[in-house]
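Exercise 7. Given the encoded structure of a 136-residue chain, write a plausible sequence.
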């Protein structure tokens, strides 16, 4: 054990619920920050402030690649699909998909072994849902 090892706090054990919230934090913060509106959007999906705080700590300590490694080991195929659809909805919710958000979503789909063809109808539905410009 190194001199400063305990300074980082306790290890955070990734659970499926925490994996969902952490994924949404990674996607929301892809532009470099997580604003209050994005945090509120996450809390609409998982209304648990404690889990959000734990996810924020986890994301600060853990790179996206390391998160994907851990999440892939603990999530079922259905949980992986739920996570990527929720992340895509968050990323597309403002009507614009930033290049970094798109890159992270595609990387997540590859890591979770979700074929693009399988994801396509969900993304098309989210594009329609979030395209409010059709109302003028």
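Solution.
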């Amino acid at each position: 054990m190194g001199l400063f090892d305990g300074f980082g706090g306790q290890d955070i054990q990734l659970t499926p619920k925490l994996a969902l919230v952490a994924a949404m934090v990674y996607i929301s913060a892809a532009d470099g920050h997580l604003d209050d509106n994005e945090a509120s959007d996450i809390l609409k999906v998982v209304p648990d402030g404690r889990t959000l705080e734990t996810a924020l700590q986890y994301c600060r300590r853990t790179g996206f690649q390391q998160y994907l490694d851990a999440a892939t080991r603990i999530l079922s195929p259905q949980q992986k699909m739920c996570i990527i659809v929720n992340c895509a909805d968050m990323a597309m919710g403002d009507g614009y998909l930033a290049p970094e958000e798109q890159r992270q979503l595609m990387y997540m789909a590859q890591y979770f072994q979700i074929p693009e063809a399988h994801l396509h109808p969900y993304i098309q539905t989210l594009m329609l849902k979030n395209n409010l410009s059709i109302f003028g």
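Remark. The chain has one domain: 12-135. Students should compare their own answers with the one above.
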